[in-house]
Amino acid sequence: MVTRWAFFITLSLLNLLVVTTVVMWSLWLPTVGWSGDGSDSATRGNLWALCLPKQSRQHNGEFYKTWEEAGDQTYHPFQTRVRVVLWSDALWRRTGLAKNRNRTWYKLCPRRPACEFTREHMWVSYADAVVFHLPTLPTNYTPELMPRKRKVHQKWVLFSMESPVVTRGKNMASYGGVFNWTMTYRGDSDVLTSYGSRSLLYNSLPALPANPGKPPRNFAREKDRLAVWFVSNCYAHLTRHHYAKELRKHIKVDVFGRCGKSVCAEDRGYRSTCFKKTIKRYKFYLAFESYKCREYITEKFWRNALENEVVPVVLGAPKEDYIRFAPPGSFIHVDDFKSPKDLALYLKRLAKNDKEYNRYFRWRSMQFRKNTTLDKGRWCNLCDKLLQTCPQERKVYADIYRWWKGKEGEEYCERTLLPEDIPKPHFDLSIHFS
Ligand SMILES: *[C@@H]1O[C@H](CO)[C@@H](O)[C@H](O)[C@H]1NC(C)=O
Ligand SMILES: *[C@@H]1O[C@H](CO)[C@@H](O)[C@H](O)[C@H]1NC(C)=O
Ligand SMILES: *[C@@H]1O[C@H](CO)[C@@H](O)[C@H](O)[C@H]1NC(C)=O
């Protein structure tokens, strides 16, 4: 009888051991088990943090430094989740989630269920990252408005979709030494939050048969109008307004938006059917950015023009930036023309020649080269970076002011005459195109 009980108890203990091991293993596996090449093979929704040898990560850069925190005990291999607090309400609105949702944690990147987001500040002490929205941060760094305590491996992430011109009112120097990561449209950010990219674009458009070098169909046939410009920042002294005014002397450009005529009044969202249908009727879309800044290529280019299969005429970032980011041969850059008049002549000629016009769509039938630095969308990019970063890694932007603005004499944004530069009393600073 005694031996039978002993046998039974031993068996139970053994069983418990096996179950515990399996549970621990399954918790552990997702964190360390699968290599992170960024591909979807990581079906468990996790990536593998890659820890390189110490020396390679010590770095004293111009704007930031990186180092390794030896013996950091805060991370353990059973950690299976990363949590992110979106500190600024403006960021929460960007997630597209309704205000009155009742859950605390959201998976903004469904393919990485291990990565969860909240906007509730009370969770900040648990967070692996806290994201701050630059355009709505206080002018000066104000510690009382930031989280009180900060876990040693917690990353403070500076987020901006706006250009340095828009955030010029911020005393960026006062934020030196505060942020660990940057998350902007610029390619040298730690996390990319672009307005668009080749990978996102190819994903959103219907696939066309691969047929390198040939336009997949006649895009010109669907179009009965020439050029369109939607413009809503009517501040008169933007470079693009002078350019557009000149251009319109030589070619018909329909102007919609706050500074032009109204169209799609009842449903003004840029994803609305009315908006898309309107744009698709045109051969050219003026994707003129408000500010001329390096790499600043916005939804005007990606969503409004390319997604609607209209050829963008671009003014803004230098041509080399468009070449680096845009599909090859997909746009017309104003810098290629001596004057707005020359551009107008070219557009008119192109509009009459379907064969030439369709050359701007050859990229649609090219195979997109696989690239592990693909843009997966902003929240997924953040999740992947968090899951892939070695937990002992440290980084801080000591000179965030110069990182953001650019080195002296090599600023990222071209100077613009801004309202504050114009002596008062100033008259109407807005422009209207009829
Ligand atoms: C919470 O929201 C979900 C959907 O957003 C809804 O189905 C559910 O009933 C809500 N629960 C409460 C307690 O309000
Ligand atoms: C992948 O993309 C990055 C960023 O766009 C680029 O720097 C890199 O050269 C690309 N790699 C390949 C193999 O195309
Ligand atoms: C983030 O920056 C702070 C402030 O300089 C620094 O103390 C901390 O170690 C950094 N954390 C990480 C994870 O890089």
UniProtKB/TrEMBL annotation:
Pathway: Protein modification; protein glycosylation. Keywords: Glycoprotein, Glycosyltransferase, Golgi apparatus, Membrane, Signal-anchor, Transferase, Transmembrane, Transmembrane helix. Its EC number is 2.4.1.-. GO terms for cellular component: Golgi cisterna membrane. It is an enzyme of class 2 (transferase). It is found in: Golgi apparatus, Golgi stack membrane; Membrane. Residues 221-403 form the Fucosyltransferase C-terminal domain. It is a single-pass type II membrane protein; Single-pass membrane protein. Belongs to the glycosyltransferase 10 family. This is Fucosyltransferase. It comes from Branchiostoma belcheri.
